[in-house]
Amino acid sequence: MPRITAKKTAEAGPVVKLLYRIAGRRYGAVPEPMAVTAHHAGLLRANVVHELLVERASKKLPPNVRELAVYRVATRIGCSWCVDFGTMLQKHGGLDIERLTKVDDYATSPAFTHQERLAIAYADAMSADRVTVTDEQVAELEREFGRDGVVELTYQIALENSRARMNSALGIVDQGFTSGDACRVPLP
To answer: Rounded to an integer, what distance in angstroms lies between the CA atom of residue 188 and that of residue 183?
Structure first.
């Protein structure tokens, strides 16, 4: 149970109720971070708009690269909600979720491509207690993905650090999206 309880639909105003309805249709359940953030309606609206804009803008990287980097951040920070939700998104995106169990061995596992290894290593460097990104690492990422790709990857990793740290601080844990307990949205 989160440290701050989710705002119930009955307590919500019309805008929050609408956002809950849209999220429920999209994901099969209202994501708990959204329902906790709903206690501050202005930040909830800002977050929803931000997330939608980031989703629309993030088209430079291959989805598998982006999603693996984001997943790695969730595992590094220890956000079980982010791992659960991220796994569901990868599954719905048609990505191979079986190999997520091998992410700790990404550097040597044949389950990951060169591009994926670069992105996961970058996620590690950005998610450590102290950022350990090197000039050489960014240069290699730029050769592989271009400048816009590096900016997108950096932004996505930083954003997931923010999400995972907020969820962890508020005690928000997995919601059952991977198991199907929360997600009633059929696979495409």
So the answer is: 13
Could you tell me if 50 and 68 lie in one domain?
A: no
Number of separate domains in the chain: 2
Helix (H, G, I), strand (E, B) or coil at 114: helix
Spell out the per-residue pLDDT of the chain, length 188, in tens.
Answer: 899 999 999 999 999 999 999 999 999 999 999 999 999 999 999 999 999 999 999 999 999 999 999 999 999 999 999 999 999 999 988 999 999 999 999 999 999 999 999 999 999 999 999 999 999 999 999 999 999 999 999 999 999 999 999 999 999 999 998 877 766 656 55
Task: Check whether residue 84 and residue 147 sit in a common domain.
Answer: yes
pTM over the 0.90 mark: yes
129 and 151 assigned to the same domain: yes
